[in-house]
Amino acid sequence: MLGIRYPVFQGGMAWIADGKLAAAVSEGGGLGIIGAGNAPASYVREQIKTLRTLTSQPFGVNVMLLSPFADEVAQVIAEEHVPVVTTGAGNPSKYMKLWLDAGCKVIPIVPSVAMAKLVTRLGASAVIAEGGESGGHVGELTTMVLVPLIRDATSVPVIAAGGIADGRGAAAAFMLGACGIQMGTRFLSAEECGIHPNYKEKIVGANDLCTMVTGKRLGHPVRSLRTQFARNYWNAEYGGMPDDELENLAVGALRLAVQEGDLKNGCFLSGQVAAMVKKIEPAADIVRSVMEEAEPLLRGAEKWVK
């Protein structure tokens, strides 16, 4: 459907997944995705242009639907005829016709069966079933439960996301009924990922209890590394801080982590699989190695499936 060699998506991480990282993943045979996040439309257009100077392979742009710039970004995507659009943190109904008319394939991230059914009716080409193990904005259901439920509920292809960092996770996702995977945290360790060295060191050095979820009180839970900022936010969240002050507490925190590596005030988004990321390597090697690891596992499972 997409013209990519491997069924591997790179998550559209805000302020992290830029044109250079997305181009490296696409060149490596996966689907590189630029993360629009809370960035203005001019930034997104710039990153699309950067990517197109580095690769002619298919790519995508992820729209964070809570962004104040979502309307402008949606228009840029249509004007640039971006091959694939993924969406997160909301309902993409408002923009579906615009993108479909522009020839984009729309693949929303869905945290529930109801959302999967809705976007399927609206013309989605596929859906990304993302479990709560992932980094950034998360839902309640785990990948192990969500993927088969959504696979049974929709007729479009399902991409599994959340808790996948190697061939074992990919193979498990395919056995659950997915036809592809999306990884975010694993690509934080890509050589082409431009995050601050402190961020990469935190990921490579993470353990099994490295993450926590904050923001539930505001209805927008986010998984990140268990840093001083995350602990301070949690204390404020359950210490009676008014909602508006709590909302402002997180403004700019991700950029402090990405650009400055601020270990005190930065929000280091990460999925639970950070504990499985052990080295920094080219994005193309990540894509290829995951699929090479998955293949013999799937072949070995055939006798049980039969």
Concise description?
The protein has 306 residues and is α/β, with parallel strands linked by helices.
Could you describe the 3D structure shown?
- The protein is of the alpha/beta class.
- The chain has helices at residues 19-27, 41-54, 70-79, 93-101, 113-121, 143-153, 167-175, 197-204, 228-237, 243-249, 253-260, 283-305, and strands at 8-10, 32-35, 59-64, 84-88, 105-110, 127-130, 136-137, 158-161, 180-183, 211-214, 222-225.
- It has an eight-stranded parallel β-sheet. The chain has a three-stranded antiparallel β-sheet with strand order 7-11-10, with helices on one face.
Write the layout of secondary structure elements.
Layout lengths: L7 E3 L8 H9 L4 E4 L5 H14 L4 E6 L5 H10 L4 E5 L4 H9 L3 E6 L2 H9 L5 E4 L5 E2 L5 H11 L4 E4 L5 H9 L4 E4 L13 H8 L6 E4 L7 E4 L2 H10 L5 H7 L3 H8 L22 H23 L1
Parallel strand pairs: 1-9, 2-3, 3-4, 4-5, 5-6, 6-8, 8-9
Antiparallel strand pairs: 7-11, 10-11
Helix pairs in contact: 1-2, 2-3, 3-4, 7-12
Please state the structural category. Answer: alpha/beta
The profile of the biggest β sheet is: 8 strands, parallel
Report the portion of residues in β strands: 15-25%
Number of helices: 12
- As residue ranges, the low-confidence spans are none
Strand-and-helix sequence, N→C?
Answer: EHEHEHEHEHEEHEHEHEEHHHH
Shape: globular
Give helix % range. Answer: 40-55%
Number of strands: 11
Report the mean per-residue pLDDT as an integer: 94
End-to-end CA span: 27 Å
Oligomer classification? single chain
| Biggest sheet: strand arrangement | 1-9-8-6-5-4-3-2
Rg (C-alpha, Å): 18 Å
